[in-house]
Give the backbone structure.
Amino acid sequence: ASSLQPTSHTQSQWRAAAAQHTRGFHSITKMAALMRQALLQARTAPACVSAVSRRFAHIDVPDFSDYRRPNSGVKEGDYSRRAFTYVLTAGLSVAGVHAAKNIVQDFLNTMSASADVLAMAKIEVGLSAIPEGKNVTFKWRGKPLFIRHRTEKEISIEQSVDPSTLRDRQADSDRVKNPEWLVVLGICTHLGCVPIANAGEFGGYYCPCHGSHYDASGRIRKGPAPLNLEVPPYEFTADGSAVVVG
């Protein structure tokens, strides 16, 4: 009888085995519960989808038939005629733009300077042919051009003039690049007449039309002219033997 009594060691083994079986039973029970929950969700999902579908089934789609273009009258040949119309319109547009460009270009050409005027836009004058104390007239851009070879006496007289006493105040050094040579346009600043060289009270230029007197620097000294004779743009050549006007 004493051999059938469990020992303390055997009792502890029984309790450990019972606890292990109990944990296994709980795990199996938990797994079965999860499986039942998954099956329940799978069965109710179509019902939810159908419920959502029934919820939005009452929405009416607008009818756009009144805004649609009727296709009953369109034939196969209409598309080809439409393409021909597009091509013809594009061709006429290109031709019209080209013609307009030519008209504008011709109009601008008529407003530009002629060939002879462009050829005289710049002139080069040799200075060796102009003697001292003389004035020679040339044509530049259709205007008379005076080139004067001044003497030492004329240079000293013009440089001694006080600009503050003049109507159009300019010093002689402001009007010449080389004191020996004076280059001005031969047009009176009063009414556009052509003055006479080496004449007048100051020995320069004289306009007999209304009595304007200019000195040997082309400055107005007496008469109705308001301004001095215009000095055109010009440069001397490197060797100083010629002047280029323009």
Notes: The longest strand covers residues 143-149. The chain has a mean pLDDT of 80. The two ends are 148 Å apart (CA to CA). The longest helix spans residues 8-56.
